[in-house]
Protein backbone atom coordinates (compact mmCIF):
# COMPACT_ATOMS: atom_id res chain seq x y z
CA UNK A 1 0.00 0.00 0.00
CA UNK A 2 1.37 3.45 -0.86
CA UNK A 3 1.98 6.09 1.85
CA UNK A 4 -0.99 8.11 0.58
CA UNK A 5 -3.40 5.20 0.90
CA UNK A 6 -1.95 4.23 4.26
CA UNK A 7 -2.70 7.76 5.49
CA UNK A 8 -6.21 7.60 4.00
CA UNK A 9 -6.88 4.17 5.51
CA UNK A 10 -5.65 5.22 8.97
CA UNK A 11 -7.76 8.38 8.88
CA UNK A 12 -10.72 6.40 7.55
CA UNK A 13 -10.58 3.96 10.46
CA UNK A 14 -10.42 6.85 12.96
CA UNK A 15 -13.33 8.62 11.26
CA UNK A 16 -15.39 5.42 11.20
CA UNK A 17 -14.50 4.69 14.83
CA UNK A 18 -15.43 8.17 16.04
CA UNK A 19 -18.79 8.15 14.25
CA UNK A 20 -19.59 4.62 15.46
CA UNK A 21 -18.72 5.57 19.05
CA UNK A 22 -20.94 8.67 18.90
CA UNK A 23 -23.92 6.76 17.49
CA UNK A 24 -23.52 3.88 19.94
CA UNK A 25 -23.41 6.36 22.81
CA UNK A 26 -26.72 7.84 21.67
CA UNK A 27 -28.27 4.39 21.32
CA UNK A 28 -27.20 3.70 24.92
CA UNK A 29 -29.02 6.85 26.01
CA UNK A 30 -32.22 5.67 24.28
CA UNK A 31 -31.82 2.23 25.90
CA UNK A 32 -31.33 3.85 29.31
CA UNK A 33 -34.69 5.64 28.99
CA UNK A 34 -36.40 2.42 27.84
CA UNK A 35 -34.77 0.60 30.77
CA UNK A 36 -36.04 3.14 33.32
CA UNK A 37 -39.52 3.18 31.77
CA UNK A 38 -39.71 -0.62 31.97
CA UNK A 39 -38.45 -0.42 35.55
CA UNK A 40 -41.13 2.12 36.44
CA UNK A 41 -43.82 -0.13 34.91
CA UNK A 42 -42.51 -2.94 37.09
CA UNK A 43 -42.64 -0.64 40.14
CA UNK A 44 -46.26 0.27 39.32
CA UNK A 45 -47.24 -3.38 39.00
CA UNK A 46 -45.63 -4.18 42.38
CA UNK A 47 -47.50 -1.25 43.94
CA UNK A 48 -50.74 -2.46 42.30
CA UNK A 49 -50.17 -5.89 43.92
CA UNK A 50 -50.13 -4.04 47.25
CA UNK A 51 -53.43 -2.35 46.44
CA UNK A 52 -52.17 0.99 45.08
CA UNK A 53 -54.22 1.97 41.99
CA UNK A 54 -52.39 2.67 38.74
CA UNK A 55 -53.09 5.89 36.86
CA UNK A 56 -53.91 4.91 33.22
CA UNK A 57 -52.59 8.29 31.99
CA UNK A 58 -49.26 7.52 33.62
CA UNK A 59 -49.13 4.15 31.84
CA UNK A 60 -50.02 5.84 28.55
CA UNK A 61 -47.22 8.37 29.07
CA UNK A 62 -44.68 5.61 29.76
CA UNK A 63 -45.78 3.63 26.71
CA UNK A 64 -45.37 6.72 24.55
CA UNK A 65 -41.94 7.37 26.01
CA UNK A 66 -40.84 3.82 25.19
CA UNK A 67 -42.19 4.10 21.64
CA UNK A 68 -40.44 7.42 21.17
CA UNK A 69 -37.09 5.99 22.28
CA UNK A 70 -37.54 2.87 20.13
CA UNK A 71 -38.09 5.14 17.12
CA UNK A 72 -35.06 7.19 18.14
CA UNK A 73 -32.86 4.09 18.46
CA UNK A 74 -34.17 2.73 15.16
CA UNK A 75 -33.32 6.03 13.47
CA UNK A 76 -29.82 5.87 14.91
CA UNK A 77 -29.28 2.31 13.68
CA UNK A 78 -30.55 3.29 10.20
CA UNK A 79 -28.12 6.19 10.20
CA UNK A 80 -25.27 3.89 11.23
CA UNK A 81 -26.27 1.46 8.51
CA UNK A 82 -26.31 4.16 5.82
CA UNK A 83 -22.92 5.34 6.98
CA UNK A 84 -21.50 1.81 6.95
CA UNK A 85 -22.79 1.29 3.40
CA UNK A 86 -21.16 4.50 2.19
CA UNK A 87 -17.92 2.49 2.08
CA UNK A 88 -19.44 -0.18 -0.22
CA UNK A 89 -18.31 1.20 -3.56
CA UNK A 90 -15.10 2.94 -4.58
CA UNK A 91 -17.02 5.17 -6.98
CA UNK A 92 -20.76 5.78 -7.11
CA UNK A 93 -23.29 8.37 -8.18
CA UNK A 94 -25.10 9.99 -5.26
CA UNK A 95 -27.04 13.02 -4.10
CA UNK A 96 -24.55 15.36 -2.37
CA UNK A 97 -27.31 16.97 -0.29
CA UNK A 98 -28.27 13.57 1.15
CA UNK A 99 -24.61 12.74 1.82
CA UNK A 100 -24.08 16.03 3.67
CA UNK A 101 -27.33 15.49 5.58
CA UNK A 102 -25.97 12.13 6.74
CA UNK A 103 -22.68 13.71 7.88
CA UNK A 104 -24.60 16.39 9.79
CA UNK A 105 -26.80 13.79 11.49
CA UNK A 106 -23.67 11.82 12.45
CA UNK A 107 -21.90 14.81 13.99
CA UNK A 108 -24.82 16.72 15.48
CA UNK A 109 -24.61 15.23 18.97
CA UNK A 110 -20.83 15.66 19.06
CA UNK A 111 -21.28 19.26 18.01
CA UNK A 112 -24.17 19.80 20.45
CA UNK A 113 -21.69 18.81 23.22
CA UNK A 114 -19.65 21.84 22.14
CA UNK A 115 -22.81 23.96 21.72
CA UNK A 116 -22.27 24.22 17.98
CA UNK A 117 -24.36 23.16 15.00
CA UNK A 118 -24.10 22.57 11.26
CA UNK A 119 -26.82 23.79 8.89
CA UNK A 120 -27.45 22.44 5.41
CA UNK A 121 -28.53 24.93 2.76
CA UNK A 122 -29.96 22.99 -0.18
CA UNK A 123 -30.60 24.34 -3.69
CA UNK A 124 -33.89 23.72 -5.53
CA UNK A 125 -32.56 20.79 -7.51
CA UNK A 126 -30.52 17.75 -6.40
CA UNK A 127 -26.74 18.11 -6.65
CA UNK A 128 -25.33 14.86 -8.01
CA UNK A 129 -21.71 13.74 -7.82
CA UNK A 130 -19.75 10.74 -9.02
CA UNK A 131 -16.94 9.98 -6.59
CA UNK A 132 -15.99 8.02 -3.46
CA UNK A 133 -18.78 8.75 -0.99
CA UNK A 134 -16.92 7.60 2.14
CA UNK A 135 -13.84 9.71 1.37
CA UNK A 136 -16.06 12.73 0.70
CA UNK A 137 -17.80 12.27 4.06
CA UNK A 138 -14.36 12.00 5.67
CA UNK A 139 -12.99 15.23 4.17
CA UNK A 140 -16.20 17.11 5.05
CA UNK A 141 -15.83 15.88 8.65
CA UNK A 142 -12.21 17.07 8.77
CA UNK A 143 -13.18 20.50 7.41
CA UNK A 144 -15.94 20.78 10.01
CA UNK A 145 -13.51 19.76 12.76
CA UNK A 146 -11.14 22.51 11.69
CA UNK A 147 -13.91 25.14 11.76
CA UNK A 148 -15.05 23.89 15.16
CA UNK A 149 -11.49 24.15 16.50
CA UNK A 150 -11.56 27.75 15.30
CA UNK A 151 -14.62 28.24 17.57
CA UNK A 152 -17.29 28.63 14.95
CA UNK A 153 -20.57 27.72 16.61
CA UNK A 154 -22.63 27.65 13.41
CA UNK A 155 -21.30 26.29 10.12
CA UNK A 156 -23.32 26.27 6.89
CA UNK A 157 -22.86 23.58 4.26
CA UNK A 158 -23.90 24.70 0.78
CA UNK A 159 -23.74 22.22 -2.12
CA UNK A 160 -24.07 23.54 -5.70
CA UNK A 161 -23.77 22.19 -9.22
CA UNK A 162 -21.23 24.04 -11.32
CA UNK A 163 -20.09 23.77 -14.94
CA UNK A 164 -17.04 21.78 -13.87
CA UNK A 165 -18.77 19.55 -11.34
CA UNK A 166 -19.84 20.15 -7.74
CA UNK A 167 -18.94 22.82 -5.23
CA UNK A 168 -19.47 22.45 -1.49
CA UNK A 169 -19.00 25.62 0.54
CA UNK A 170 -18.39 25.42 4.26
CA UNK A 171 -19.14 28.81 5.75
CA UNK A 172 -18.27 29.73 9.31
CA UNK A 173 -19.50 32.71 11.28
CA UNK A 174 -16.36 34.84 11.06
CA UNK A 175 -13.00 34.96 9.35
CA UNK A 176 -10.27 32.69 10.57
CA UNK A 177 -6.61 33.67 10.90
CA UNK A 178 -4.27 33.20 7.97
CA UNK A 179 -2.06 31.32 10.39
CA UNK A 180 -4.56 29.34 12.50
CA UNK A 181 -2.06 27.52 14.67
CA UNK A 182 -2.49 24.26 12.87
CA UNK A 183 -1.75 23.47 9.26
CA UNK A 184 -4.91 23.01 7.18
CA UNK A 185 -5.11 21.21 4.86
CA UNK A 186 -2.53 18.90 6.47
CA UNK A 187 -1.07 15.74 4.90
CA UNK A 188 -4.25 13.81 5.79
CA UNK A 189 -6.58 16.25 4.03
CA UNK A 190 -4.22 16.53 1.08
CA UNK A 191 -4.18 12.74 0.68
CA UNK A 192 -8.00 12.64 0.70
CA UNK A 193 -8.23 15.54 -1.76
CA UNK A 194 -5.83 13.79 -4.12
CA UNK A 195 -7.80 10.54 -3.92
CA UNK A 196 -11.02 12.47 -4.62
CA UNK A 197 -9.32 14.53 -7.35
CA UNK A 198 -10.80 17.49 -5.54
CA UNK A 199 -9.58 20.96 -4.64
CA UNK A 200 -9.96 22.84 -1.41
CA UNK A 201 -9.78 26.60 -1.48
CA UNK A 202 -9.54 28.53 1.77
CA UNK A 203 -10.97 32.03 2.09
CA UNK A 204 -9.79 32.92 5.60
CA UNK A 205 -11.23 36.44 5.70
CA UNK A 206 -14.69 35.18 4.78
CA UNK A 207 -14.35 32.19 7.17
CA UNK A 208 -15.06 30.00 4.18
CA UNK A 209 -13.75 26.80 2.63
CA UNK A 210 -14.74 25.68 -0.85
CA UNK A 211 -14.43 22.06 -1.86
CA UNK A 212 -14.62 21.49 -5.64
CA UNK A 213 -15.29 18.07 -7.09
CA UNK A 214 -14.91 17.19 -10.76
CA UNK A 215 -17.88 15.96 -12.80
CA UNK A 216 -16.44 12.46 -13.00
CA UNK A 217 -13.32 10.89 -11.47
CA UNK B 1 -32.38 9.01 57.09
CA UNK B 2 -33.32 9.24 53.40
CA UNK B 3 -30.57 9.89 50.92
CA UNK B 4 -30.54 13.30 49.26
CA UNK B 5 -29.62 12.92 45.61
CA UNK B 6 -29.08 15.30 42.69
CA UNK B 7 -29.53 13.68 39.27
CA UNK B 8 -27.79 15.45 36.41
CA UNK B 9 -28.42 14.50 32.76
CA UNK B 10 -29.36 16.39 29.59
CA UNK B 11 -31.87 13.63 28.68
CA UNK B 12 -35.01 14.94 30.41
CA UNK B 13 -37.05 11.74 29.88
CA UNK B 14 -34.30 9.79 31.64
CA UNK B 15 -34.19 12.28 34.52
CA UNK B 16 -37.99 12.22 35.00
CA UNK B 17 -38.33 8.43 35.00
CA UNK B 18 -35.28 7.62 37.10
CA UNK B 19 -36.07 10.31 39.67
CA UNK B 20 -39.61 8.96 40.06
CA UNK B 21 -38.27 5.44 40.62
CA UNK B 22 -35.79 6.72 43.18
CA UNK B 23 -38.50 8.65 45.06
CA UNK B 24 -40.68 5.52 45.34
CA UNK B 25 -37.64 3.97 47.07
CA UNK B 26 -37.64 6.71 49.68
CA UNK B 27 -34.90 8.96 48.32
CA UNK B 28 -35.15 12.74 48.14
CA UNK B 29 -34.33 13.56 44.53
CA UNK B 30 -33.64 16.84 42.73
CA UNK B 31 -32.80 17.04 39.03
CA UNK B 32 -30.71 19.26 36.75
CA UNK B 33 -30.50 19.03 32.98
CA UNK B 34 -27.05 20.58 32.69
CA UNK B 35 -23.71 20.81 34.46
CA UNK B 36 -24.13 24.57 34.91
CA UNK B 37 -27.56 24.13 36.51
CA UNK B 38 -26.19 21.43 38.82
CA UNK B 39 -23.37 23.69 39.99
CA UNK B 40 -25.92 26.40 40.92
CA UNK B 41 -28.13 23.88 42.76
CA UNK B 42 -25.24 22.55 44.80
CA UNK B 43 -24.61 26.09 46.09
CA UNK B 44 -28.23 26.40 47.20
CA UNK B 45 -28.89 22.95 48.68
CA UNK B 46 -26.98 20.21 50.41
CA UNK B 47 -26.81 16.76 48.77
CA UNK B 48 -25.36 13.44 49.85
CA UNK B 49 -24.58 12.32 46.34
CA UNK B 50 -24.66 13.57 42.74
CA UNK B 51 -25.43 11.15 39.90
CA UNK B 52 -23.77 12.80 36.94
CA UNK B 53 -23.93 12.01 33.23
CA UNK B 54 -20.54 12.25 31.52
CA UNK B 55 -21.61 13.52 28.12
CA UNK B 56 -23.62 16.75 28.29
CA UNK B 57 -23.64 19.89 26.14
CA UNK B 58 -21.78 22.86 27.61
CA UNK B 59 -20.05 21.94 30.87
CA UNK B 60 -19.66 18.18 30.49
CA UNK B 61 -19.63 15.58 33.26
CA UNK B 62 -15.89 15.53 33.91
CA UNK B 63 -15.62 19.32 33.99
CA UNK B 64 -18.65 19.49 36.32
CA UNK B 65 -17.07 16.83 38.55
CA UNK B 66 -13.84 18.81 38.78
CA UNK B 67 -15.65 22.00 39.81
CA UNK B 68 -17.93 20.14 42.24
CA UNK B 69 -15.00 18.57 44.06
CA UNK B 70 -13.28 21.96 44.31
CA UNK B 71 -16.39 23.61 45.78
CA UNK B 72 -17.63 20.71 47.92
CA UNK B 73 -14.87 18.17 48.52
CA UNK B 74 -17.07 15.98 50.76
CA UNK B 75 -19.72 15.60 48.08
CA UNK B 76 -19.85 12.10 46.62
CA UNK B 77 -20.22 11.85 42.83
CA UNK B 78 -21.22 8.81 40.79
CA UNK B 79 -20.66 9.14 37.06
CA UNK B 80 -23.00 7.59 34.50
CA UNK B 81 -21.87 7.01 30.95
CA UNK B 82 -22.94 5.32 27.74
CA UNK B 83 -19.30 4.39 27.09
CA UNK B 84 -17.59 2.93 30.16
CA UNK B 85 -13.99 2.54 29.08
CA UNK B 86 -11.10 1.84 31.46
CA UNK B 87 -9.45 5.14 30.50
CA UNK B 88 -12.56 7.17 31.28
CA UNK B 89 -13.01 5.30 34.55
CA UNK B 90 -9.45 6.11 35.61
CA UNK B 91 -9.85 9.75 34.60
CA UNK B 92 -13.09 9.98 36.61
CA UNK B 93 -11.53 8.44 39.73
CA UNK B 94 -8.49 10.72 39.47
CA UNK B 95 -10.87 13.70 39.45
CA UNK B 96 -12.51 12.38 42.63
CA UNK B 97 -15.57 10.39 41.49
CA UNK B 98 -16.70 7.80 44.01
CA UNK B 99 -17.86 5.39 41.31
CA UNK B 100 -18.53 4.99 37.62
CA UNK B 101 -21.49 3.15 36.04
CA UNK B 102 -22.47 2.33 32.48
CA UNK B 103 -25.96 3.11 31.13
CA UNK B 104 -28.45 1.53 31.23
CA UNK B 105 -27.71 1.15 34.92
CA UNK B 106 -29.31 -1.39 37.23
CA UNK B 107 -31.28 0.61 39.83
CA UNK B 108 -30.65 -1.80 42.69
CA UNK B 109 -26.90 -1.53 42.01
CA UNK B 110 -27.16 2.26 41.80
CA UNK B 111 -29.19 2.39 45.04
CA UNK B 112 -26.48 0.37 46.85
CA UNK B 113 -23.84 2.80 45.67
CA UNK B 114 -25.98 5.77 46.76
CA UNK B 115 -26.32 4.31 50.28
CA UNK B 116 -22.53 3.81 50.43
CA UNK B 117 -22.03 7.38 49.18
CA UNK B 118 -24.27 8.77 51.91
CA UNK B 119 -22.43 6.77 54.57
CA UNK B 120 -19.06 7.96 53.25
CA UNK B 121 -20.19 11.57 53.26
CA UNK B 122 -21.49 11.30 56.82
CA UNK B 123 -18.14 9.90 57.97
CA UNK B 124 -16.31 12.78 56.29
CA UNK B 125 -18.63 15.36 57.86
CA UNK B 126 -18.16 13.74 61.30
CA UNK B 127 -14.40 13.76 60.82
CA UNK B 128 -14.36 17.46 59.92
CA UNK B 129 -16.60 18.27 62.89
CA UNK B 130 -14.27 16.32 65.21
CA UNK B 131 -11.27 18.19 63.82
CA UNK B 132 -13.00 21.54 64.36
CA UNK B 133 -13.84 20.63 67.98
CA UNK B 134 -10.25 19.50 68.67
CA UNK B 135 -8.92 22.74 67.20
CA UNK B 136 -11.35 24.78 69.26
CA UNK B 137 -10.39 22.90 72.45
CA UNK B 138 -6.72 23.40 71.69
CA UNK B 139 -7.21 27.14 71.07
CA UNK B 140 -9.14 27.58 74.29
CA UNK B 141 -6.59 25.52 76.21
CA UNK B 142 -9.32 23.31 77.74
Description:
- The complex is a heterodimer of chains A (217) and B (142).
- Chain A has 217 residues and is of the alpha+beta class.
- Chain A folds into two domains: 83 residues, Helix Hairpins; 123 residues, Histidine kinase-like ATPase, C-terminal domain (Heat Shock Protein 90, 2-Layer Sandwich), CATH 3.30.565.10.
- In chain A, the strands form two sheets. Chain A has a five-stranded mixed β-sheet.
- In chain A, a hairpin with a 3-residue loop joins strand 4 and strand 5.
- The longest helix of chain A has 47 residues.
- The radius of gyration of chain A is 22 Å and the shape is elongated.
- Chain B has a single domain, classed as 3-Layer(aba) Sandwich (Rossmann fold).
- The model of chain B has no long low-confidence stretch (mean pLDDT 91).
- A five-stranded parallel β-sheet of chain B has the order 2-1-3-4-5, sandwiched between helices.
- In chain B, helix 2 packs parallel to helix 3.
- By secondary structure, chain B is of the alpha/beta class.
- Chain B contains five helices and five strands.
- Helix content of chain B is 54%, strand content 18%.
- Chains A and B meet through helix 1 and helix 2 of A and helix 1 of B.
Amino acid sequence: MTDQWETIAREGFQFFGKMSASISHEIKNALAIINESAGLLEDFSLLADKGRPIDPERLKGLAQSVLKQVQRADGLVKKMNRFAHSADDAIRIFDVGEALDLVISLVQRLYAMREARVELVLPDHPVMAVTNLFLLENIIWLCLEFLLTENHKVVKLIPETTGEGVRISLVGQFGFPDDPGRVFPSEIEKALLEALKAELRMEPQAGKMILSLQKNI
Amino acid sequence: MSEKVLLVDDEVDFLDTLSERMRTRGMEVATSSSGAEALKKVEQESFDVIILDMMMPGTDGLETLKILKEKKPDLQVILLTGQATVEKGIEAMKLGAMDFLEKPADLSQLTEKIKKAQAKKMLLVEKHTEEKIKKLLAEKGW
